[in-house]
Design a protein that fits this description.
CATH class: Alpha Beta
Structural class: alpha+beta
Number of domains: 1
Shape: globular
Radius of gyration: 16 Å
Strand content: 5-15%
CATH architecture: 3-Layer(aba) Sandwich
Length: about 220
């Protein structure tokens, strides 16, 4: 990951321009709801670069605007995993990144290195589990967790960060266009949650799967 410091600085400036940085994202603390989105331009939800977990052609799509350093994202992760496990053929998760906390940009570049190595899911689970050790921006804990999950750290550190940086910039721009104001923010088949709760996420996914099965 060449020029990592430059990447973090550039993305931090983009995040600040996006709307006040971390202070804007007060909903990123576990238990505090992220403000909901009203308008949903579909073209801004999924990009060709977006990481996908689950079948690429699944009939139901969850889009999550996600920050690996966000406590609420960590809290929601088991629920999202359970939904995917319960719907292995019918639901996919599309990840969009909002790097708005200390260490977020570096963690995202790490996740993209893991994706390139075919290790995205285990590395994501590992760094979220270890998040209390690194979410203040001290990244050694994240790297150690990723390595234990199978990441080739030497190869990851050598990877250029230019492409992940460009993808993060696009995700930030799309979040702005969508009116996203917190992480995590979820859309189910293009619709924001009616209310911010794990139960509502599960309910909307169940309804979307049932509707697709009727067609």
């Amino acid at each position: 990951m060449n020029r990592r410091t430059g990447v973090v600085a550039t993305i931090a400036l983009s995040a600040l321009a996006f709307g006040g940085g971390v202070l804007l994202y007060s909903g990123s603390v576990a238990g505090e709801p992220a403000p909901q989105v009203k308008a949903v331009p579909a073209a801004n939800l999924v990009r060709p670069h977006s990481a996908i977990i689950g079948p690429k052609n699944a009939p139901v799509t969850i889009v999550e605007f996600f920050d690996p350093s966000c406590e609420a994202c960590r809290a929601y992760f088991p629920q999202v995993k359970a939904i995917l496990a319960a719907n292995p053929k019918n639901v996919r998760l599309v990840m969009r990144y909002l790097p708005l906390h200390p260490g977020s940009a570096e963690a995202i570049v790490m996740l993209e290195a893991a994706r390139a190595q075919g290790k995205l899911e285990p590395v994501m689970a590992a760094i979220l589990e270890a998040q209390p050790d690194w979410h203040d921006g001290k990244m050694d804990g994240a790297w150690a967790a990723a390595e234990k999950a199978g990441l080739d750290v030497a190869k990851a550190r050598a990877m250029s960060s230019d492409q992940p940086m460009a993808w993060m910039e696009q995700d930030i721009a799309d979040a702005r266009a969508l009116g996203v104001r917190g992480t995590p923010t979820f859309f189910v088949d293009g619709k924001p949650l009616d209310s911010f709760s794990p139960e509502q996420l599960d309910a909307q996914v169940r309804a979307a799967v049932a509707a697709k099965k009727k067609k």
